[in-house]
């Protein structure tokens, strides 16, 4: 029963993430006007907004103008739901569950917008910083968690990516903001692992892109998705990875 509840919550919020991903780069409100078709502007009614199922029932086309709907929409809804389920399996219904679900959804929005536009919007990272600080204080009150662990992690994330941006000019300044948010959410161990994984993932993806000549060496590549993937791996399997590493020394 709890599994289904988590999946439904992930699908519903995933549907809202699609709105954010579509509207934020266009500098539109994410709350008004109500959801509408991007092709004909017709207002979408409740039967058109059921995550995944509406897409399947409508055969991937708008009910009103029959324009094709991108597969991206159900994929994002399912991705968010699967991440919520994996987080639940790791943490149960705890404070960490809600904390990491918010981060996962935020990283989906930031990562996909960065991939599409190579821009990171301050509205998303400011939201992340505010939510992270709220959770830091809640954890400090409830669990007597050491607040400096998260503050230091934010500084490390900000500093490491900031230094790379300054020295190489190969990343955007938005990546500094993403690393700051991840540090405030994950703590020092989490951000160090996130940065390591993101750099490895970025190197592999960059190498593949160059080998297949999809881009030239002078063209920029969005690093936000790499940070997002690294952070999710750190959340879901970070402790096991660190234990394996320590055990191999």
From TrEMBL:
It is found in: Cell membrane. Its main location: membrane. It is a multi-pass membrane protein. GO terms for molecular function: aspartic-type endopeptidase activity; methyltransferase activity. Coiled coil: none annotated. Residues 101-206 form the Prepilin type IV endopeptidase peptidase domain. The keyword Chloroplast does not apply. Keywords: Cell membrane, Membrane, Methyltransferase, Transferase, Transmembrane, Transmembrane helix. The chain crosses the membrane at residues 6-24, 73-91, 97-113, 120-141, 147-167, 179-210, 222-242. It holds the Pfam family A24_N_bact. GO terms for biological process: methylation; signal peptide processing. This is Leader peptidase (Prepilin peptidase) / N-methyltransferase.
């Amino acid at each position: 029963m709890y599994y289904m509840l988590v999946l439904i919550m992930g699908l519903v919020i995933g549907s809202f993430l699609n709105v954010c991903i579509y509207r934020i780069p266009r500098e539109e409100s994410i709350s008004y006007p109500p959801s509408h078709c991007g092709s004909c502007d017709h207002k979408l009614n409740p039967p058109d907004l059921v995550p995944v199922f509406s897409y399947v029932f409508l055969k991937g086309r708008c009910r009103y103008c029959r324009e094709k709907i991108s597969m991206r929409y159900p994929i994002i809804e399912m991705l968010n739901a699967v991440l919520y389920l994996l987080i639940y399996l790791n943490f149960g219904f705890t404070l960490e569950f809600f904390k990491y679900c918010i981060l996962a959804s935020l990283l989906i929005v930031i990562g996909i917008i960065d991939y599409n536009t190579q821009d990171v919007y301050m509205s998303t990272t400011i939201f992340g910083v505010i939510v992270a600080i709220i959770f830091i204080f809640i954890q400090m009150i409830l669990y007597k968690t050491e607040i400096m662990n998260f503050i230091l992690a934010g500084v490390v994330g900000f500093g490491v990516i900031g230094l790379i941006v300054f020295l190489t000019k190969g990343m955007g300044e938005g990546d500094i903001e993403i690393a700051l948010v991840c540090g405030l959410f994950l703590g020092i161990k989490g951000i160090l692992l996130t940065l390591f994984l993101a750099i490895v993932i970025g190197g592999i993806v960059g190498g593949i892109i160059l080998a297949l000549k999809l881009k030239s060496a002078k063209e920029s590549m969005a690093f936000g998705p790499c940070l997002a993937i690294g952070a999710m791996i750190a959340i879901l399997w970070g402790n096991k990875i660190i234990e394996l590493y320590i055990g191999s020394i």
